[in-house]
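We were asked to recover a plausible sequence for a given structure. The inputs and outputs are reproduced exactly as logged, with field labels preserved.

PROBLEM: sequence recovery
POSITIONS: 1417
GIVEN STRUCTURE:
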């Protein structure tokens, strides 16, 4: 801190000494030298100078250094002896000090005395350092001089307080204070402290800072307390001295109470301090933390520390500049640099604290973990978790657990993470390896929200960090893609797609890493292949770049190789890759995922156009001989058109080619009815418009299917050209999908050009089987099934195409096609019921597990007049005196009950023959074409009124078309399947889709090309119409109940109609539940009166529970859920409902679990069911049910028993164990609670004497052991402290529990007798637990000084009825011991009471101690 002036050594050195008696000069060395400057030596006769000379110091004048001729310690010792032995001591000290004061009156002399002395020594001596202390510091080291010199210095110091610094940069006040540092001993510390504090109070601010920071180096430990108190007072008065004062307080040994007081003072000022002061303040706060108050201090610190307020003004501009300039940050002045340095220093302080202080790091994580509200979380919290994660390896697992919990609860979301990277970029950039490691671990989680958070870490690390970190992030993502784990692959590919959108130029630099994924294509699902080729195609073709040529070459090579393969799995890769590449190359205003990446292009160049068309022609030629491959190609191309806008030139070429090929392949004139040797007569069916015999068109379905299935030799072929491509009816739906999407692209959604396909008939045969079903051969039945399947899939694609048309005429035809679909499904069920081995034709083709066997049939020649296919040509041919116009579309108001009641005769007709149904079409879901999400807009329509006018424009007839319940149920079932697949993944699946290859994803290919967010948004738009339908169904059941005088299933009920409406009810609730409940709690709970089925009741409760999780008034709603669940359990459901359900046990178990989980008293609810309701069944008939809980029967008893045992064990396991520190009131409350729990356990256990079926005994063994274990861990510590004061209660509790454990022992014996492996596997662990209970009771008695009251006896093996089990080791002598347990539990003396308690434990002692693992959950 002080600048020292160094002088060169003089060649001639003087060594002088003086004898204490005669002051006679003698040479100190053999070789004396003359002084370099003789006039610099101070010469006078003062005592001060003489004594100094005698001791070994020569004083100089002007700018020359004082010279020290002897060692510093020698000088101090000699001077001390001279003074101490001087005849005039202690007066000599006053003279010496007086001489010093006179000498330092001259400022140059004073300055020399404050600067270090020059050391004179022999040339032969080279020991020691060249640096010497100043004269003043040497004198301060002499105890008898120190007080006087300190007084002199402090009297002298005020003269220089307000002087400017000399030209040589030396500050005299700082130089004076430096003399007091690091003294070996302070004679009068209190006086020195007083003087320094007085000096600080009058010094200017710049010197105050230095004086304060020098205190730890000046004062001794004994003065720390006084200084700390005065500094704390000064801190309150002068906030400008905060930094030096806190810095000093951190270095002093102070009372913890004082530190706590100062810390709290700083806490209160955190919001108003300067950024420059913040690092020191935080350092002090963290330094003063102790293990006892760490959590409290850190919690308050993170709450009051608003780093965003400090950092944003400094760094936000720099962060934005970094993003714009790719890392080249330029600050516009010293202020930004200073602010940045302060923030760096602040985080260095925090990093140091959490790295070296385990208490602080753990407290900080706990403080974040215990934040109660979602809104209270800050970006600083997230940054701190990452910092601690990177600096403390021991807490990584703990931090990961906290992060996962916060993510699941919605506390850490994307917005908060993004803000953390924006605000704390300069800190986090140094933690890139730890961030990537954390992201990697999070991606291994089975929770989708946690996986998403891990992917965001990768995304923002790439976005904000430098090139090296970007490369590391891409490398980690590529590793995830190549890992083979389905969830990791999907997530990593999604992140790479986002990064391509985010920063294409940066991704190109890492394209070589992404290209390596091409070697792992055979391990990917079709959706993953699409994503990969989208990424690579974007990098390769989005913009001409020299470094992308090698990617283009590799992609073309892979695509051509895979397309030429005869194995469908590899051909699939080639088709998907080629179509994706073509889409990128032909993009108009290039976009990926509908997001613009580069500036748009007006159209393709001729070279680009040729590349695209050549690639598409290559795919077409490689797939035309395989119907499955062709269908996959059409579907992929259709998906491309749906997602991406192609360049006009390419779109025109595609549209013309597709339209011509479709007409030639699948459409014929209506008048040209095919003639041939068909097994069934060909008819034109399902036409929606009346045509004359020579007008209109038809879909040529049956002839195409016949030529494919029945033609086995060349004589059956209608085309002699063997090179002609195959025309398979399998390609009809995907080809039409491609056609209509292409037309929609060309005409902005208008499908008038192909609307003739909506109402045109199909060449089929009579599909209704009638009496001929049994007489058909297997081949004919299979042919009819395939024909119906293809017709259904055609109608499904027609509905997909025209559902978006807004005219009432079109909407009426769409509703008619939906009605046809329902009718065909009913007919198909009849055929499938008698054709069990039938395998339907494929409807989804992007499957890895499909074995493709090319069909050998040739194409059927078909001609059509193109004008007959267009809507305009068709309408011109509709002459006559009738015109369909002025159609109106009206909505159902749904306010009246009668408006929703369908015609019962029509419903009976719809369900006629359904009792014969033996197959469920849900099992064949994968073989139907997928409905688009736009189809469900049909739910919006109410009554569609078509007004038919004559030639005079007068109304001749009116036709009303309405969405009927069968069609409504059809739509709701499909929608619920989509919701379940996308939004409600089953437990155990890592991601919502694509987890199980070949099974979970079949039938949802188009759905999975949209995000779950998009699907949810589409369903939200349907909430209003679904609520209208729900209210209408509710009104129907209300009216039905009123008609039957309050009985839902009265004698006048139409069974089929009832179940149809009930199914619609259930599906709507199921959809709501899958959507996580976007309607209100109270709105939905009002429907509970009309719930028609047990399964619907369960979905309603689940839906309400989802809303409860997001609710603020959760307590009241929780009680309502318990009340509803109880009402459902106490309701008499329609006969046969439980038997008809596919999973009645699971549904009843779930509903009972909901009731016990939400009721306010689980123990009282269990006691009611087990103690009141179950006894009602004991003496009743086999099919009887409980009058209180009609859902409780002898058949369902095991479900009730299992749920009650599980909930009882769960409840007591969650009860906190008692401690000695708890109050007496808490002990009493817990003891009462355990008495109730043991009483419930006793009631349940004793039920096995009546209900002794194998499942009941299994439940008893499993949960009985768990209950005893909970008793050991949670209740026995409580009994340890309650035994003395609540002896009677404890004895009563143990007596009851003893009887229960004895029955468990009997159950073990019963299991061994019957040699039931399912039961006996629980016996060893149960016996071991019972033995532990005996030992634990003994330990409790020893703790309470009653060891002598404990004794053991042998318990006989008995069966459930109490009969003794005779074994080889049975001894008569043990009979008495086994029977004394219960008879002696009535003694009134204390000793006997304790003895009784010992006997109670005796009943739980077993002879066997076999041990084995419990193999059940």
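RECOVERED SEQUENCE:
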């Amino acid at each position: 801190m002080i600048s020292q002036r160094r002088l060169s050594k003089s060649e001639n050195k003087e060594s002088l000494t003086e004898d204490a008696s005669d002051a006679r000069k003698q040479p100190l060395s053999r070789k004396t030298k003359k002084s370099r400057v003789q006039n610099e030596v101070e010469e006078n006769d003062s005592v001060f100078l003489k004594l100094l000379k005698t001791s070994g110091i020569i004083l100089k004048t002007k700018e020359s250094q004082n010279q020290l001729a002897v060692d510093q310690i020698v000088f101090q010792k000699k001077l001390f002896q001279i003074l101490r032995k001087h005849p005039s001591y202690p007066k000599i000290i006053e003279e010496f000090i007086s001489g010093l004061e006179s000498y330092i009156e001259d400022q140059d002399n004073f300055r020399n005395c404050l600067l270090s002395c020059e050391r004179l020594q022999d040339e032969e001596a080279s020991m020691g350092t060249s640096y010497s202390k100043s004269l003043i510091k040497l004198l301060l080291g002499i105890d008898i001089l120190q007080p006087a010199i300190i007084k002199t210095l402090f009297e002298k110091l005020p003269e220089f307080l307000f002087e400017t610094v000399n030209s040589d940069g030396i500050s005299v006040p700082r130089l004076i204070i430096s003399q007091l540092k690091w003294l070996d001993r302070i004679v009068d510390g209190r006086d020195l402290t007083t003087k320094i504090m007085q000096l600080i109070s009058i010094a200017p601010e710049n010197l105050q800072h230095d004086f304060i920071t020098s205190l730890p180096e000046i004062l001794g430990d004994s003065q720390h307390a006084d200084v700390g108190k005065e500094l704390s007072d000064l801190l309150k008065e002068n906030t400008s001295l905060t930094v030096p004062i806190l810095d000093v307080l951190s270095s002093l040994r102070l009372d913890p109470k004082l530190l706590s007081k100062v810390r709290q003072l700083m806490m209160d000022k955190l919001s108003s301090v300067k950024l420059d002061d913040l690092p020191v303040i935080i350092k002090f706060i963290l330094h003063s933390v102790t293990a006892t108050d760490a959590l409290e201090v850190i919690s308050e610190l993170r709450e009051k520390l608003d780093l965003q307020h400090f950092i944003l003004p400094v760094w936000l501009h720099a962060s934005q500049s970094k993003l714009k300039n790719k890392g080249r940050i330029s600050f516009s002045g010293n202020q930004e640099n200073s602010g940045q340095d302060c923030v760096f220093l602040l985080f260095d302080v925090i990093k140091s604290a959490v790295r070296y202080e385990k208490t602080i790091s753990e407290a900080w994580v706990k403080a974040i973990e215990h934040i109660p509200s979602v809104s209270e979380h800050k970006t600083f919290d997230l940054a701190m978790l990452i910092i601690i994660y990177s600096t403390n390896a021991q807490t990584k697992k703990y931090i990961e657990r906290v992060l996962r919990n916060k993510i699941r609860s919605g506390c850490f979301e994307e917005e908060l993470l993004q803000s953390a990277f924006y605000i704390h970029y300069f800190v986090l950039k140094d933690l890139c390896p730890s961030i990537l490691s954390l992201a990697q671990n999070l991606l291994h989680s089975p929770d989708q929200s946690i996986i998403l958070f891990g992917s965001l870490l990768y995304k923002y690390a790439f976005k904000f960090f430098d090139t090296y970190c970007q490369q590391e992030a891409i490398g980690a993502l590529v590793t995830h893609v190549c890992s083979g784990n389905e969830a990791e692959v999907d997530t990593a590919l999604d992140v790479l797609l986002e990064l391509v959108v985010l920063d294409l130029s940066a991704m190109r630099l890492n394209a070589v890493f992404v290209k390596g994924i091409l070697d792992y294509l055979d391990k990917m699902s079709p959706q993953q292949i699409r994503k990969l080729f989208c990424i690579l195609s974007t990098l390769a073709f989005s913009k001409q770049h020299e470094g992308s040529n090698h990617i283009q070459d590799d992609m073309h090579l892979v695509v051509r190789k895979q397309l030429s393969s005869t194995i469908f799995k590899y051909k699939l890769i080639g088709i998907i890759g080629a179509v994706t590449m073509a889409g990128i190359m032909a993009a108009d205003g290039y976009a990926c995922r509908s997001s613009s990446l580069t500036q748009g292009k007006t159209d393709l160049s001729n070279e680009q156009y040729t590349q695209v068309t050549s690639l598409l022609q290559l795919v077409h030629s490689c797939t035309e001989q395989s119907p499955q491959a062709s269908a996959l190609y059409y579907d992929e191309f259709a998906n491309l058109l749906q997602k991406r806008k192609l360049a006009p030139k390419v779109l025109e070429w595609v549209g013309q080619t597709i339209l011509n090929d479709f007409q030639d392949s699948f459409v014929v004139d209506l008048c040209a009815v095919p003639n041939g040797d068909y097994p069934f007569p060909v008819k034109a069916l399902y036409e929606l418009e009346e045509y004359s015999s020579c007008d209109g068109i038809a879909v040529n379905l049956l002839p195409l299917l016949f030529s494919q299935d029945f033609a086995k030799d060349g004589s059956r072929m209608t085309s002699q050209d063997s090179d002609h491509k195959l025309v398979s009816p399998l390609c009809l739906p995907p080809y039409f999908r491609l056609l209509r999407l292409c037309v929609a692209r060309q005409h902005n959604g208008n499908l008038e050009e192909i609307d003739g396909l909506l109402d045109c008939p199909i060449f089929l045969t009579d599909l209704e089987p009638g009496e001929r079903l049994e007489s058909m051969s297997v081949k004919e039945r299979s042919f009819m099934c395939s024909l119906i399947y293809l017709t259904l899939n055609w109608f499904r694609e027609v509905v997909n195409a025209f559902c978006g048309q807004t005219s009432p005429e079109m909407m009426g035809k769409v509703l008619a096609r939906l009605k046809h679909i329902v009718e065909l499904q009913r007919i198909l069920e009849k055929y499938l019921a008698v054709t069990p081995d039938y395998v339907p034709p494929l409807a989804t083709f992007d499957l890895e597990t499909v074995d493709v066997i090319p069909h050998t049939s040739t194409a059927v020649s078909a001609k059509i007049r193109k004008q007959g296919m267009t809507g305009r040509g068709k309408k011109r041919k509709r002459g006559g005196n009738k015109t369909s116009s002025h159609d109106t579309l009206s909505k159902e108001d749904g306010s009246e009950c009668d408006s929703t009641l369908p015609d019962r005769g029509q419903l009976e007709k719809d369900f006629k023959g359904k009792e014969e149904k033996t197959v469920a079409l849900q099992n064949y879901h994968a073989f139907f074409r997928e409905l688009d999400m736009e189809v469900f807009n049909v739910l919006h329509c109410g009554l569609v009124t078509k007004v038919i006018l004559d030639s005079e424009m007068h109304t001749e007839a009116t036709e009303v078309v309405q969405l009927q319940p069968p069609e409504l149920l059809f739509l709701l079932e499909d929608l619920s399947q989509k919701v379940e697949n996308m939004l409600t993944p089953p437990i155990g699946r890592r991601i919502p889709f694509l987890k199980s290859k070949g099974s979970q994803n079949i039938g949802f290919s188009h759905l999975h090309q949209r995000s779950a967010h998009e699907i949810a948004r589409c369903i939200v738009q349907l909430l209003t119409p679904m609520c209208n339908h729900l209210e209408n169904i509710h009104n129907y059941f209300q009216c039905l109940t009123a008609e039957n005088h309050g009985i839902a299933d009265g004698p006048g009920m139409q069974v089929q109609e009832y179940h149809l409406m009930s199914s619609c009810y259930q599906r709507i609730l199921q959809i709501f539940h899958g959507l996580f409940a976007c309607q209100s709690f109270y709105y939905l709970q009002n429907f509970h009166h009309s719930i028609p089925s047990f399964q619907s009741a369960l979905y309603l409760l689940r839906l309400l529970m989802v809303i409860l999780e997001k609710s603020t008034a959760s307590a009241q709603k929780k009680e309502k859920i318990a009340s509803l669940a109880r009402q459902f359990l106490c309701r008499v459901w329609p006969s046969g409902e439980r038997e008809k359900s596919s999973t009645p046990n699971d549904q009843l178990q779930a509903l009972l679990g909901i009731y016990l989980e939400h009721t306010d008293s689980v123990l009282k609810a269990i006691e009611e069911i087990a103690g009141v309701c179950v006894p009602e069944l004991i003496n009743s008939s086999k099919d009887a049910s409980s009058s209180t809980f009609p859902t409780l029967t002898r058949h369902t008893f095991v479900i009730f028993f299992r749920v009650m045992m599980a909930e009882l064990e769960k409840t007591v396991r969650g009860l906190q164990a008692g401690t000695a520190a708890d109050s007496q009131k808490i002990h009493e409350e817990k003891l009462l609670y355990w008495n109730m729990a043991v009483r419930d356990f006793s009631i349940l256990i004793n039920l096995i004497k009546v209900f002794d079926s194998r499942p009941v005994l299994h439940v008893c063994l499993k949960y009985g052991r768990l209950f005893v274990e909970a008793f050991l861990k949670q209740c026995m510590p409580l009994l340890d402290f309650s035994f003395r004061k609540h002896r009677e209660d404890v004895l009563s509790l143990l007596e009851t529990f003893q009887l229960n454990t004895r029955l468990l022992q009997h159950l073990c014996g019963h299991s061994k007798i019957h040699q039931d492996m399912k039961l006996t596997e629980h016996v060893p662990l149960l016996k071991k637990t019972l033995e532990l209970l005996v030992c634990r009771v003994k330990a409790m008695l020893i703790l309470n000084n009653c060891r002598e009251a404990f004794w053991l006896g042998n318990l006989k093996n008995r069966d459930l009825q109490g009969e003794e089990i005779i074994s080889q080791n049975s001894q008569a002598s043990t009979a008495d011991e086994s029977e004394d347990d219960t008879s002696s539990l009535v003694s009134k003396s204390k000793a006997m009471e304790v003895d009784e308690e010992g006997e109670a434990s005796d009943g739980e002692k077993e002879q066997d101690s076999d041990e084995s693992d419990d193999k059940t959950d």
